[in-house]
TrEMBL record:
Domain NAD(P)-binding: 3-323
Keyword Ion transport: no
InterPro entries documented for this protein: dTDP_Gluc_deHydtase (IPR005888), NAD(P)-bd_dom (IPR016040), NAD(P)-bd_dom_sf (IPR036291)
UniProt entry keywords in alphabetical sequence: Lyase, NAD
Protein name: dTDP-glucose 4,6-dehydratase
GO biological process: nucleotide-sugar metabolic process
Cited PANTHER family: DTDP-D-GLUCOSE 4,6-DEHYDRATASE-RELATED (PTHR43000)
CDD domains in the cross-refs: dTDP_GD_SDR_e
Length: 353
């Protein structure tokens, strides 16, 4: 048994689905079901006895303690977080609460449980903390990609809260000996991503004949990784990672935002042409840049490749085709996640369009 937090969100749900597709080891999935959590993502597991879903908060230490006591997982994989930079700029309270206070509460509950295990179980136990490359700050063009020893320079409330959680996890290893693993991954994309993030937002807006809002000049660079490759990397780190170590995960697929949007438009032009025959690219609208927007992120993933033998299976070209196809094939999922709450959010962001 493993305990996954945040397993109804984008990456967590992909991870749980992949996990149970590849092994019979059961999962207990603790998720608060915030706006970003969606049980529909786990639909294929509805009647699967290997998946136990618990709605609850990682900051609820007593609940986490009860789950640990009852299910006795051999590992915790911690995805639960507030994850959207724009929301963190509007208000950071939930980010501080879940990403920092929540991670602290989770670590404390896990530490108490772990300390009481038999020695063999204690040394086999793992706490895997899923984090982001955004903790490293912004790169200049031509600067080498982030390695695991890069100094932390978080610039947004989101990345600052994730940086704080990374430090707590590190300290729980150094101070208490908790066998932790930390992964810092680049931008993910793929099925089940909530349409507030760049790629699904653009697909959904394009199909709805709405403007495609590109921040500033659109030349911000991100290093994109298909979510299935991220999940495979996490499984590999859990299996073979060395406690106390950090592993950067990325696919060496640096792209500017505007390139991404143009690629999406070209695929949609091919697969779902607009009724009037014009390109979706005509919907692109440049909007005021995000405050403090980091210019470039890039991951140096040589450590996980060399030490754990992980490499991504997808390139951006193959992964983005799968992703666009998935959104085209799942209009019901898209319609349902665009609930009132989603619409309200989009309006606060892009009211001027
Ligand atoms: P997401 O926002 O799609 O999902 C987060 C999930 O956590 C949701 O299901 C939500 O309900 C749950 N959650 C939030 N607060 C909770 C709480 N207090 N208790 C229990 N559950 C709670 O996020 P995501 O994009 O899937 O990201 C997952 C993790 O991966 C995060 O830790 C994020 O920082 C990290 N990460 C994301 C990316 C990316 O590109 N999306 C890249 C690198 C790292």
């Amino acid at each position: 048994m493993i305990l996954v937090t945040g397993g109804a969100g984008f990456i967590g749900a992909n991870f749980v689905l992949d996990w149970l597709a590849q092994s019979d080891e059961p999962v207990v999935n603790l998720d608060k079901l915030t706006y970003a959590g969606n049980l529909e993502n786990l639909g294929p597991l509805q009647d699967d006895p290997r998946h136990v879903f618990v709605r609850g908060d990682i900051a609820d230490r007593a609940l986490v303690a009860r789950l640990l006591e009852r299910y006795r997982p051999r590992a915790v994989v911690h995805f639960a977080a507030e994850s959207h930079v724009d929301r963190s700029i509007q208000g950071a309270a939930d980010f501080v609460q879940t990403n920092i206070v929540g991670t602290y509460a989770l670590l404390e509950a896990v530490r108490a449980h772990w300390a009481a295990l038999e020695p063999a179980e204690r040394s086999a136990f793992r706490f895997l903390h899923v984090s982001t490359d955004e903790v490293y700050g912004s790169l200049e063009p031509g600067e080498p990609a982030f390695t695991e020893t890069r100094r932390y320079e978080p610039n947004s409330p989101y990345s600052a809260s994730k940086a704080a959680s990374d430090h707590l996890v590190r300290a729980w290893h150094h101070t208490y000996g908790l066998p932790v693993l930390t992964t810092n991954c680049s931008n993910n994309y793929g099925p089940y991503q909530f349409p507030e993030k760049l790629i699904p937002l653009m697909i959904v807006h394009a199909l709805a004949d709405q403007p495609l809002p590109v921040y500033g000049d659109g030349l911000q660079v991100r290093d994109w990784l298909y979510v299935g490759d991220h999940c495979a990397a996490i499984r590999r780190v859990l299996e073979a990672g060395v406690p106390g170590e950090v592993y950067n995960i990325g696919g060496r697929q640096e792209k500017t935002n505007i390139e991404i949007v143009r690629t999406l438009c070209a695929l949609l032009d091919e697969w779902r042409p607009r009724a009037d025959g014009r390109s979706y690219a005509t919907q692109i609208t440049h909007v005021r840049d995000r405050p403090g927007h980091d210019r470039r992120y890039a991951i140096d993933a040589r450590k996980i490749e060399r030490e754990l033998g992980w490499t991504p299976a997808e390139t951006f070209d193959t992964g983005i085709r799968k992703t666009v196809r998935w959104y085209l094939d799942h209009p019901d999922w898209v319609a349902r996640v665009q609930s009132g709450a989603y619409r309200q959010w989009v309006q606060t962001q892009y009211a001027a369009l």
